[in-house]
Amino acid sequence: MFGTIRKHQSWLWYIIIAVMVIGMITWTNQLGKSGNQRGGGNFGMIDGHVITDSEYRDALNEAMLMYLVRNHHWPEAGSQPAFDEVRETYQRLFFIQKLEEYHIHTDQDSVAQFADVILRELGNGETVPLETFVEKVLKPKGMTADDLRRFAEHYLSLQQLVSVLGLSGKLVTPQELQSLYINEYQQVAVDAAFFSASNYLAKVAEPTAVELSEFYTNQQAEYREPDKMQVDYVFFNATNFMPEAREQIGITNLNRETDEALTRLGTNAIRYGKTTEEARAKISEILVEDTAISNAYEKAVSFQNDLLSKEKATVQDLGAFAKEKGMEMKTSKPFDKEFGPGDMNLGLNYPVSALFNLTPDEPFVEQPVRGADGVYIIALDKFIPSRIPPLTEIHSRVLADYKMAQATRMAQINGHIFGQSISNQLAQGKSFAAVCAAFKVEPVEVKPFSLNSERVPEVEDHVEELSTFKQVVFSTPAGKSSSFVPTHDGGYVVYVRERLPIDEAKMKADLPRFAEIVRQRREVEAFDLWFRQEAPVALGNIQALQRAK
Known about the structure:
By secondary structure, this protein is α+β, with helices and mostly antiparallel strands. Helix content is 49%, strand content 11%. The chain has 3 domains: 2-168 and 529-548, no CATH class; 187-221 and 393-499, no CATH class; 228-384, no CATH class. It has a 4-stranded antiparallel sheet.
């Protein structure tokens, strides 16, 4: 979409503006989830203020702009993450009303500067002219420059509102700061005993036919295949357009644009190659490929327009027309909404679920799809309803699942026995390693870590959630062992050898920065509490939300 703003560089587009935490607050539990339907012209009241049609429309435009800033694309049918028009718009209206109540406004110079930041980021460091942004990005969505200005003003004003309402959260005493720092950064020395199903698989006996059938019957829901579909497609491979694209750009322009991209990326260029030359070659390749895909898209659009100009064009017509043009129509392998077609590279952001909206009467995707490796013209081939395969069809899979389930049960039984006996054994003076040896379990020595540690490599292959493992460790006193903690394929017991002394010098150096982090965290918590108290009251009479609830 944004490639039209600055040719060849849509692949570099990103936004570094920090998104306010208020957009992530979950409030649907109190107000109910709503569908994308307006209130039929009756938009209700917020704190006694009647919402007009123009106010709703303006707030909706702001909500869509916020989605654009966060996700780098407009909210469309099937977009991920999903966009709930009613919820997002009324949340916006609530905040706008509160800005008026608190008399919070941002000066226009700051608004203009912030709008320039948005436009500069859209242009990859070079400011996009406002007229271009309006014409290419806003106008197709029925928006104007006023919508951008209003969004920028409310965005900055909302940050002020967070600061005002979260002011009480910034009050933290030096003693509390030090206590919080120690709690977060003090390291512990830990040993762990893991009970994994894989260690017990060899001990599982072969099931009888009756046992396996019973297991299959009890687990049938797990074997249900989702709705699937197949599509027919004609592929315009970007590789076929590369020579033309390279010639079109020209070696001089290609070198210049590559150098500009390297300059903008700075140290981030390393993601494209270990050396500058490797990065340079990769970026040049991407620039040429981007142009090649654009050229392929033009050819695909012309192809599809010619095809659909025929009255009641069918999928059979697609195959015949492709053959006439010296191309080939292919049929995808069956795929579901979650994973999409494995033999088509539609790109990570393509809403595959939208393909399931195709019908025999309307079998074609409206426009050719720009994929990661070329352009696809897509039409419905057939739907495959959800089903449960019979045991004979998936016998080997069910057998493997049965054995794994039995092995997991064995692992957890042994883990529970170990967890129940370890405390007594330690109290009698035995070491953790000695108890593990008696149970024929290999203890794992974990390198010291803290609550703040992002990685604990020694345990990450054995635990489902690192946060849960940390919680178990830091709730276990030094010199003690935890209870057995079950996981999906077994479980574990931890032994906390000791809590290591805090580095006083490092703590003293870190405290100023840590204090700022704590204050920001408390500010957000205070604002979140205010929001969860105020929003349900202010929005409680909104009919659209009540209907959804």
